[in-house]
Amino acid sequence: MSFIETIDLDLTEVAEIRTDAVTGFRSLFSKKSFEANEVVIGFMARATHATPNYLTVQINDDVHIELFPECLECINHSCDPNCFFDTTLMELVTVKPIAAGEEFSFFYPSAEWDMDRPFACHCGSKMCIGKIQGAKHLSAETLTRYRFTGFIQQKLSSR
Prior knowledge:
3 helices; single chain; three-stranded antiparallel β-sheet; alpha+beta; 30% strand; 12 strands
């Protein structure tokens, strides 16, 4: 069995894609419970790009990856996320407990310096920051609330 087949098998046991009948938007939901700081699944790059797009995660200034397994691209943004893409270890990890049936979410600026498609957030969290445009644009106070990839941490320390 190849590594890719193992990832597919593991993910089907822990998550499922759901599509909103009205909007057509896809989301990824947990099929089991997770503790905080637990690895959900390993991932890899399906493709790389020199510039960001709405499906990529940034790993350095000139490399943005599309995730494999592809269904990880269905993890939507929240200003109160429950998971994090660790691009150093190439693992999706929880940042707080996740119950079976709960939607996976991550804080987009945790893995993007300057997003190609900023948007007004409507996550509904009391911690909502409003406009989502990348870590480059976050206030010092907002930075204290989130975990960031190694690359984003480097960018933040040099600004």
